Amino acid sequence: MHDDARRSGRDVLRGVVAGERRRVAAGCVLGASHQIGEALIPVLIGVIVDRAIVHPDVASFARWALVLAVVYVFLSGGFQLGSRAGEYAKEYAGHSLRMRLMRRVLDPRGGASTGRPPGALVSVATEDARRAGSVAFVLPLGFSAAVGLAAGAILLLRASVPLGLLILLGTPVLMGLGQLLARPLEHRSHAEQERAAHASGVAADLVAGVRVLQGLGAQRAASDRYRLTSRASLDATVRAARAEAVQTGLMQALTGVFIALVALVGGRLVLSGSIGLGELVAAVGLALFIPGPLQVISWMAAEVARSRASAGRVAEVLATPGDIAGTGAAAGAKDPADSAAPGGDGAPRGSLRLSGLVHEGLDGVDLTVAPGEFVGVVVTEPAHADTLVRCLARRVDPDAGRLELDGVPFTDLAPRSLRSRVLVAEHGAELFAGSLRDNITAIGASTHPAAAAARADEVAASLPGGLDAPVGERGRSLSGGQRQRVALARALAADRDVLVVHDPTTAIDAATESRIATGIRELRRGRTTILVTSSPALLAVADRVALIDGGRLADEAPHEELVRRSSLYRTAVLA
């Protein structure tokens, strides 16, 4: 499985380079020109030494000095422009990966967050995306360093064939050793990121549930859990740092031995008279130049190893299968989005049908909701209610049975198309950082009627700034009842053909709940509405109520009639 992750990681890195190929190519060309200029500097200095000392010639000296100045200008410009192109490529590549990850996380098929806490996904979408994207900056530097080594070798061959051959043969060996030494770092870097993501996930969960933990008096247990997770992350980071230190140290040692060998051979050639003073200066300068590209190549090997580990984690998220099957309408299937609106030439829209629904406690539920009908659903088992809501939202596909919208199976509809018609407002829906108005209009444009129906206008009236008042992250500046009213207003403002709401008023007082029930009924008149709840106030305004017990439809009738004739219903609703 680790090999599969590595292959997927390589595919991600190839995609990064392909997506930024123009900037990567520009970085390679400009960086190579810089490295060639760096390699030419010692040679030009050697020529100038010859013209100034060995064979004095003022005019020639001036010309070569001018050439040296021009080369300095060009290599400096190449470095600046190449670094700029590389930085742009890195940032755009990281941004592109983050966007791909967000599209996968927000994909209507779901599945990306399965088995991953939010903190882990945040870590992948930030740190891992940044590291994977940095390969677009690292590769041009490595290519430029390789070109610099080649240029140095060629220039050395002109001065001395033995020195040139030594570098040409020794450099590939050194680069191969760098790749071998980087492999342990890649494995440990992957483990480091896994541990860091897990620690981030635990921290996010603890912060989100801090009030619950305080209420349960479980702060110590939570602290001990995070301490262990954080320690494991620290240990993984230390192991990765040790691997990097060993890899870097060994590469520097090998580079030092290599340069010492070059210096030894060059010194013997000078003593034998095979090269002159200018050539000696050039050889010494090139010998001092060579460690730079070699160190860049060593650094590149370590960075590519880190990038590959992070790219593997990115690939795992991108390749996660969806919780639901299918991505589009089946051939020949009718998309209800093309149907006429109520009152037009076509049939009314918004009918729902559940046929033999079987999934996690639901055992053959049959329920039909006509277009424009206002239906209450009471489920005696809370877990079964959650399952029903998840199926209606198509977060999962049932094990058996089918759901239909206007006669078309859910599985024949693209998830995005389905959710443009059917909105499921689950219990405990989160608010976002921003104003009340921003939260209400997040998926709709009609603020005032929806706010009035959900009595969110009363929340606005109680806050400085009204609808423009900030609500804080996840709406934590509001009470539980206020958050529910704002979330309900957001669902109503979306004005979907079908609206399913699950327990929208559990934290709201009875008097306000009754006014909300009337507001929902009036605002949703002519639109299909399903309330999955046990609230008598909400059920009383429904056209009829379906009672589900033991995973099956047990009874259905108006609220008042069920209260009179069903003891099971009275227990579920009035107890």
UniProtKB/TrEMBL annotation:
One of its GO terms (molecular function) is ABC-type oligopeptide transporter activity. Residues 347-575 form the ABC transporter domain. It is found in: Cell membrane. SUPFAM superfamilies: ABC transporter transmembrane region (SSF90123), P-loop containing nucleoside triphosphate hydrolases (SSF52540). InterPro entries: ABC1_TM_dom, ABC1_TM_sf, ABC_transporter-like_ATP-bd, ABC_transporter-like_CS, P-loop_NTPase, Type_1_exporter. Residues 25-306 form the ABC transmembrane type-1 domain. The keyword Hydrolase does not apply. It holds the Pfam family ABC_membrane. This is ABC transporter ATP-binding protein.
